[in-house]
Amino acid sequence: MIRIIILDDHPLVRQGIRAIVASSPLLHVLGEASTSREAHLLLEQSMPDLVLVDLNLGSESGLDMIQEARRAGHTCKFLILTSSITRSELLLAQSQQIEGICLKEAFPEDLLYAIEVVARGRKYYDPDLMSSLMENNTADRDHSISELTPKELEVLLALGKGRSNKEIANTLFITEFTVKKHVSQVLAKLELADRTQAALYALSKGLVQFELQR
């Protein structure tokens, strides 16, 4: 049984999320919160496995709430729910190692799947959201793929699947040092700032299936 807290400042949204979660026999809602303060109190009282967090909590930020919860020592997982997210917010979420982001417009079965994936310890970043964030930045870079060596292309695909340097090294039977060199070359040739942008690029271009959510 996966124990869940719902944090959203809109009562009707919380009610809808709760109804979806309640449709699964594997999920149990421990409580609801409308503010960060209420959520922190629930965290202390109930020790959930997963918290569903609205990104925009009126004057508060769901990202700030998560950061505060982690500083307080809470080890539960977090899944952000949002109607939209800026690139800077996405990068901040990734830098904070937040486990998942799901669009509020997603189908109920997609939300349940996202919860299941995150609860199992994997990442879930909504593929439609990530594709839309990248589509305006990759139009002029398609030709650069041809400049990648076969090994660099393999590394790019692995980045698109959310693999760490260690995982890439084990999969491709090379050292982590070599992986870092390939990553640097990929970023330089595709004119990307970091591995997160490389992952978004690979996903938005359909180079890989969205394996972060599997």
From TrEMBL:
<dbReference type="InterPro" id="IPR001789">
    <property type="entry name" value="Sig_transdc_resp-reg_receiver"/>
</dbReference>
<keyword id="KW-0804">Transcription</keyword>
<feature type="modified residue" description="4-aspartylphosphate">
    <location>
        <position position="54"/>
    </location>
</feature>
<dbReference type="GO" id="GO:0003677">
    <property type="term" value="F:DNA binding"/>
</dbReference>
<dbReference type="InterPro" id="IPR000792">
    <property type="entry name" value="Tscrpt_reg_LuxR_C"/>
</dbReference>
<dbReference type="Pfam" id="PF00196">
    <property type="entry name" value="GerE"/>
</dbReference>
<dbReference type="Pfam" id="PF00072">
    <property type="entry name" value="Response_reg"/>
</dbReference>
<keyword id="KW-0805">Transcription regulation</keyword>
<dbReference type="InterPro" id="IPR011006">
    <property type="entry name" value="CheY-like_superfamily"/>
</dbReference>
<dbReference type="InterPro" id="IPR058245">
    <property type="entry name" value="NreC/VraR/RcsB-like_REC"/>
</dbReference>
<keyword id="KW-0238">DNA-binding</keyword>
<dbReference type="InterPro" id="IPR039420">
    <property type="entry name" value="WalR-like"/>
</dbReference>
<keyword id="KW-0597">Phosphoprotein</keyword>
<protein>
    <submittedName>
        <fullName>DNA-binding NarL/FixJ family response regulator</fullName>
    </submittedName>
</protein>
<feature type="domain" description="HTH luxR-type">
    <location>
        <begin position="141"/>
        <end position="206"/>
    </location>
</feature>
<dbReference type="InterPro" id="IPR016032">
    <property type="entry name" value="Sig_transdc_resp-reg_C-effctor"/>
</dbReference>
<feature type="domain" description="Response regulatory">
    <location>
        <begin position="3"/>
        <end position="119"/>
    </location>
</feature>
